[in-house]
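QA checklist item 7 of 12: single-chain prediction sanity check.
[x] sequence parsed
[x] length recorded as 393
[x] structure emitted
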Amino acid sequence: MTVAPLNPALARTFAPPVMEARGWLDGVTFPPERPLINVSQAAPIDPPPEGLRRAVAEAALNDPAAHLYGPVLGMTELRDELATQLGAHYGATLSGAQVAITQGCNQAFCATLATLAGPGDEVILPTPWYFNHKMWLDMASVKTVPLPAGPGLIPEPERAAGLITDRTRAIILVSPNNPGGAEYPAEVVRAFYDLCRDRGIALIVDETYRDFDSRTGPAHDLFHDPDWDRTFIHLYSFSKAYRLTGHRVGALVTSVGRIAEVEKFLDTVAICPNQLGQIGALWGMRNLGQWVAGERAEILARRAAMVQGLAGLDGWKTLGCGAYFAYVEHPAAQDSPDFARRLVREAGVLLLPGTMFTPADDPSGRRQCRIAFANIDVPGIGALMGRLAALAI
């Protein structure tokens, strides 16, 4: 029997890492006195605040248009609100016409890359990388050029300059970083922007975790350049700030001309973003400023507990810690994938090995792990440290 062909680019793409890690739980029993501590995924598990849920529920019950196709680029009100608030935060004037609302920030990334690069083109991606970025580049047959991060997991513009070729279309930054937790200094982001502008390529900055940056005020000044949208593309997610992960609401901000190209992609892939999710995001932006500030304070307290706890573990080294993540070097003799599986069995801890965030030929990933601490409180972090300390290395 003849088998239908499989796209070789898709076949070469690795399996979803979080789903792979969940498979390690199969057949493992966690007693009531030692339940699983799951620090594998950076997604809020609590529901949104009641006011937001009521706004979504009321729309579902009383607004017939909430169940129909909406604008391909998203609700005008939400696009305008994001432009206004983002502009106020960064001290710039932005327009809703420069905003596209997407089905989550992953789709914002995919739509952006679809306007920039095709098979055989190259994109520079700092390592350790966010694995879904690498997966999309592989699926699109775009060559990923790894840029190993420097001290503090901060990528270095000078090193990136040496990787640019005539096939390079973009450099991608994530700050605060997933998986490393690093917050990129404003001068580093500016240096990357200047490099990309001068070399005629795009700078994509994914700011999914912007609301949990430990710094006050804007993290960079790129929007101040009157021609910023010729080079810089901003990505954002409403999922983390308002606990809307299941509703899939993200955004990208770029030039009006590129937005027109993004619209082609979005119309083909999803037709329009989730209407109820957009209603929730808009309500959140207009009503939850103080609540988000409280969420940020809690995340910063958990970050401090992580830094302190890891400092007390013999042999462990903290490479980066911020937003939802700590990225660490472990002291075990095993490579990180085997060590991660062992942690499930012997410590009741599920985390992700560094090999999921690095090229296959990069040995650093075999000594590293990512700990996503957003869903465990300070006492839970203490329990996590206790289990790691008790493990026989």
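[x] summary fact logged: The radius of gyration is 21 Å.
[ ] second reviewer sign-off
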